[in-house]
Design brief:
Layout lengths: L3 H8 L10 H8 L3 E5 L4 E3 L7 E7 L1 E6 L7 E7 L3 E2 L1 H6 L6 E4 L3 E7 H8 L3 H27 L2 H16 L1 E3 L3 E3 L6 H8 L3 H13 L3 E4 L2 E4 L2 H7 L8
Helix pairs in contact: 1-2, 2-4, 6-9, 7-8
């Protein structure tokens, strides 16, 4: 567990707690519980009981909708400074989606009862939570719409742009290199499609000089070009 000074500073990074006074933050720290999750392991599964919020200290979390009898849909990719599990925190109902670690993650969890006890008398924090929740719902709606309306190539282009921003290593004049675990199988899983489809679509993006394959790693050569693909419908599927 990190020391108090680190945690106070770190919690300020979360929009949810940025307006909370230090006295409440210190009290909040006393209620946080550390949790380590290895890559590919679930933090929680859809439909399970949940009464805690999770804060990401390091690593990446994938939020997944798993409809019965249908292919899963990745709703969000979250990194350090993000939080998740807020729906069950608010209503105490079973988890509406699952959360999996994309890589080894360091998390902090906060029980529903502790959250409301500490946040009592802090309307600004509750207002921020509701605003953030509203934003999450809009993102989920957009994500579900993109699954039904956008081609695989467009969704792949959008995902690569997101990964370039959140996990890429920029190299002057050589684009943005993605980490080793961003590969064809992992991209296929996130996009809810087959590995063969991702391989085919990446080949098309390489032909357009938008990406390059270097061994098992992907290099983004032209982020703006990938973003431009999102502005039109094409025939790829």
């Amino acid at each position: 567990m990190h020391d108090r000074a680190f945690l106070v500073k770190h919690l300020r990074r979360f929009p949810l707690f940025s307006a909370v006074d230090e006295t409440k933050l210190v009290k909040l720290i006393g209620r946080l519980r550390p949790r380590q999750v290895c890559a590919s392991e679930p933090v929680f599964l859809q439909g399970t009981d949940g009464d805690e919020l999770f804060l990401i200290v390091s690593g990446m979390i994938r939020i997944v909708l798993e409809p019965a009898g249908a292919r899963e849909v990745t709703l969000a990719m979250l990194t350090a400074g993000d939080f998740f599990g807020e729906m069950s925190l608010l209503d105490g109902k079973p988890r509406s989606a699952a959360a999996y670690a994309v890589e080894d993650c360091e998390l902090l969890s906060l029980l529903r009862s502790d959250f409301f006890e500490v946040m009592n008398g802090s309307p600004e924090s509750i207002r921020r939570l509701l605003a953030l929740l509203s934003g999450r719902l809009r993102q989920t709606n957009d994500r579900l719409q993109s699954v039904s309306l956008l081609s695989v190539r467009q969704r792949l282009a959008g995902l690569l742009c997101d990964l370039a921003r959140t996990r890429g290593h920029s190299e002057n004049g050589r684009g943005i290199l993605l980490p080793k675990d961003v590969n064809h199988p992992s991209l296929a899983k996130i996009l809810s499609t087959s590995r063969e489809t991702v391989t085919r679509e990446l080949a098309e993006l390489r032909a357009q000089d938008l990406v390059a394959q270097e061994g098992r790693r992907i290099r983004i050569l032209h982020v703006e070009g990938l973003e431009a693909l999102l502005g039109r419908q094409d025939s790829a599927s």
